Amino acid sequence: MDPIIYHPHPKAGRIKFFIPYPMKAVREAVKDKEDSFYHPVQKLWSIRNTAENLSWLKGLLGNDVKVCEKNTKPAFPHRELSSSSLDILAIYEEKLLLKAYSGHTIRTYVSEFRQFLMFHEGKDLNTLDKASIESYMAGLIQHYGISGTKQNQTINAIKCYYEHVLGLPREYYDLQRPKKAKRLPNVLSQEEVKRLISFPKNLKHKAMLHTVYGGGLRAGELIKLRVRDIRSDEGYIFIKGAKGKKDRRTILSQKLLILLRSYYKEYKPSYWLFEGQEGGQYAVKSLQMVFRRAAEGAQVDPWATLHTLRHSFATHCLEQGINMRQVQVMLGHESAKTTQIYTHVIGISAKTIKSPLDNL
What we know:
This protein has 14 helices and eight strands. It is of the alpha+beta class and 360 residues long. A five-stranded mixed sheet has the order 3-4-2-1-5, covered by helices on one side.
């Protein structure tokens, strides 16, 4: 796959561009450039939009660079599936349902396996050997620049077919995965969190953001909360079937309890704590829009996401001296190593640490 520059609008502040995974030297040069930034959601890099930068970038990426108007990477070619392939896909999806995979995992695996079927249309999947599957994965990496996360999703979707549908032995596939970047979680200060979660005028929106931060919840966990999961007498929030299909408990703040009682009195939810317009679960996308409007209105870090509130909860708990094991339990982390990453964030501020330079 060739590198791509997405031609910036004259008023745009950044030039965005895509670097294929094999171009490691180019990526290192971009990392070293002042003001370069990586956008993980779009899988794109960006630098300041100046004539000098655009000229530098074209020289760096070489003659094969493509200049496009839209921020879209080349899509995998679409082919119609035959009736036999559709039957295989239906059997595959049914197996995932029977194994009680989450809705998100099922959608991801079915999408990746559909792509695998399209590529091998007309071939007997039962006769494909390990080398053929590794060749398919190598093509995705080299021509489409798929990330390490997507590589894992794709190979796991394929393995699921061979191991769970066909019942073949577990197989290891030798893939050239990129090293996973060790990024610190994005965290807001307590003052920023206070501004953000207090910004909404709508009581339901305010209560949802307070609950996400107050309990360190994931978006999917918030919308699955039932009225009965707020255990006010015991002082905790019960989270049923969280990530990894594990139940857990997290702290119920007294401030949050007062707010939730006001919310309950006004909205009177019957089953789900936060109901959508038709009485069903609140939509994750709607919750994310609530967060985005609050973040913009409160003028906090523009790169913050709803999950940033969970990161901030964990960091602030550790900062105030709560035992790391307790934080691990509240977050539902299986490994303490996952929780330990927040110890690299805490206390890194001018208010808590004095530079040795100030002593000179």
